[in-house]
């Protein structure tokens, strides 16, 4: 005689719904709710609707003030950068013979653990000033900000501005006499983790 197979009882719909709801709630259990003004949850729950509305309004006012402060700081940075660009251009125009040099860097740019061919980068440096230089890979996918100086005998290009005055920093340098630069000076530059290639420099033609 064959016996009917044993079957497990089917969960009732309310139980299934409760399990689903519990599954949705549990992942959120570890995320504490954040209330306006960082008010603790217990205190928030005890507040009246009017007090909660006032807290939200105060939080919104704080958020606006912070956004305005960030915007003001951004404007101040842009103004400072604009003034620096203007001062650099004035210094270039007022440079005496031998105080300004123009260079072209061709070669490769290091990003991460790989070297990448870079587009030729122009450097227009003048003694007494730090010049920002943008280095870009040929495919346009990688960019490196750099900084250059010229002291009359050496052109120095570093990845970070603070490295310019640090002996032994991983910077590219081309050194020569004023006569060398006047004739046009080119040399191979090699750094460990920054750039490598050829740096060609010349004193600009005098226009006055």
What general form does the structure show? Answer: elongated
The parts where pLDDT drops under 50 for at least 5 residues are 1-31
Number of strands: 9
Task: Provide a count of the helices.
Answer: 4
User: What integer value in Å does the Rg equal?
Assistant: 32 Å
Structural class: alpha+beta
Mean pLDDT: 86
Describe the model.
The protein is α+β, with helices and mostly antiparallel strands. It has 2 domains: about 35-95, no CATH class; about 95-200. The protein has 4 helices and 9 strands, in the order αααβββββββαββ. Strands 1, 2, 3, 8 and 9 form a 5-stranded antiparallel sheet that branches. A 4-stranded antiparallel sheet has the order 4-5-6-7, with no helix packed on it. The longest helix has about 45 residues, at about 50-95. The radius of gyration is 32 Å and the shape is elongated. The model is unreliable at about 1-30 (pLDDT under 50).
In brief, what are we looking at here?
The chain is 36% helix and 28% strand.
Task: Please write out the topology.
Blueprint: H1 13-29, H2 41-46, H3 49-94, E1 100-111, E2 114-117, E3 121-126, E4 131-136, E5 143-150, E6 154-158, E7 172-175, H4 178-183, E8 185-190, E9 195-202
Antiparallel strand pairs: 1-2, 1-3, 1-9, 4-5, 5-6, 6-7, 8-9
Any key phrases for this structure?
208 residues; alpha+beta; 2 domains; five-stranded antiparallel sheet; four-stranded antiparallel sheet; 4 helices; 9 strands; elongated; disordered N terminus
